[in-house]
Design brief:
disordered N terminus, mainly beta, 1 helix, elongated, 399 residues, 5-stranded antiparallel beta sheet
């Protein structure tokens, strides 16, 4: 009797799945071609299956302003059972500001009912015109892709309160496609704690070499440690025997209004080590107890915002030179840096006379000087101040 009941339940479940429809995740990747690659127009999808077609379904971003450039958006939709999908139609209207063009990158369609995924890779501009505000295009299944296994290593910084108990997701952005958004989780274990390195093994469709990843921190579940200092992520393609590092070295800080935050982290093929020397002036009360950060701007890209800190030692005191060693991706020659002074923590010496910064590329043996010779003076309303300092040219004596 018990066996009969279990069999009957299984039959009913199969009948419901077949007759009443499928649940899908639609993962849309928008390209990075130019500043206005996204769209604020409404976006719709229609699925064409072997048993019929779905209705036209709006892909709604739940109050967000449309679809932005260089982003991956995930939508949950349901349809009747239409069988295996062979084609999709994407439609968007050009109504609204910055809505007439859209650099549509790719779609990964995951059938969560039948545990099947299919990939569509148009990688093309969709452009509307004044006579036709709505643009629709159809795409066949790109190909049935093999899978790839990855080893993902996540490193949390050693700063105070660097760990988080929020949920962390990763999306791999490859040269031929994009993975689904994957929860990084060890059941029953505490991940992403201060100074900790966590390793995960994931499987996706074969998306080619991975030049970029997206990391998302979700603190919506009432997290007691909502912030997170992410030092970096390494992604090892176990099939190709290729390991890539994605450096971040910054805080992910959700807010009361936005408890989910995501960042796109590009891959740099090489890393560069720098010696950073910061000189504080000898003027009266020139030193500061505020936090000091540096961002390095190179010809190939820029570093993350990096805290300059020696644990337990007083930095940036009057007449003092402080030396720090940092590592970034290979960003090329450095024509400019940004220095930020943060006095939000109730600093007793909020102001700072910065004489200058010298930056030595230890890899290329290049030393560059960025003189400032001015005060950085936060105010009661703006306790954080940042300045961009161009490279000093010894041939002209000018910055």
């Amino acid at each position: 009797m018990k066996l009969f009941s279990l069999t009957l339940i299984s039959v009913i479940c199969c009948f419901l799945c077949c007759c009443y429809g499928n649940n899908y995740k639609v993962i849309v990747r928008t390209g990075c071609g130019k500043i206005i690659a996204g769209t604020e127009g409404k976006v719709y999808i229609t699925l064409y299956g072997e048993k019929g077609n779905s209705s036209t379904i709006r892909l709604d971003n739940e109050g967000k302003p449309g679809i932005q450039r260089c982003t991956t958006d995930t939508f949950d939709i349901s349809t009747e059972d239409i069988g295996i999908v062979s084609k999709i139609r994407i439609e968007f209207d050009g109504r609204g500001l910055n809505s007439d063009n859209w650099l549509f990158g790719s779609v990964l369609l995951i059938d969560e009912t039948q545990k099947r995924f299919q990939y569509f890779q148009p990688s093309r501009w969709l452009i509307t015109n004044e006579e036709q505000n709505t643009k629709s295009v159809e795409f066949e299944v790109f190909q049935s892709r093999p899978t790839t296994d990855y080893k993902v290593t996540v490193e949390t910084g050693d700063e105070e309160d660097a760990g988080t108990d929020g949920k962390v997701y990763i999306t791999l952005i490859g040269e031929t496609g994009v993975s689904r958004k994957i929860l990084l989780d060890h059941e029953g274990k505490s991940e992403f704690q201060r100074g900790q390195t966590d390793t995960f093994y994931i499987t996706t469709g074969d998306i080619g070499l991975v030049p970029e990843i997206q990391v998302e921190l979700d603190s919506t579940a009432g997290s007691q440690s909502p912030n997170w200092f992410l030092k970096g992520v390494s992604v090892e393609d176990l099939k190709r025997k290729l390991d890539r590092s994605f450096l971040w070295n910054e805080w992910l800080t959700p807010t009361a209004d936005q408890k989910t935050i995501s960042v796109e982290i590009p891959f740099f093929s090489l890393t560069t080590d720098y010696e950073v020397r910061v000189v504080t002036g000898d003027e009266e009360e020139a030193g500061t107890h505020g936090k000091v950060y540096i961002t390095i701007y190179g010809e190939k890209g820029h570093s993350s915002k990096i805290l300059l800190d020696h644990e337990g030692e007083p930095e940036f005191q009057r007449g003092q030179t402080d030396t720090f060693y940092i590592t970034t991706g290979d960003i090329g020659l450095v024509p400019e840096i940004q220095v930020e002074l943060d006095s939000t923590a109730g600093s007793q010496s909020p102001n700072w006379f910065l004489k200058g910064v010298s930056l030595e590329d230890l890899t290329g043996k290049i030393d560059r000087t960025f003189p400032w010779n001015q005060w950085l003076t936060p105010t009661a309303d703006q306790k954080t101040i940042s300045v961009e300092i161009p490279l000093f040219s010894p041939t002209t004596g000018k910055q």
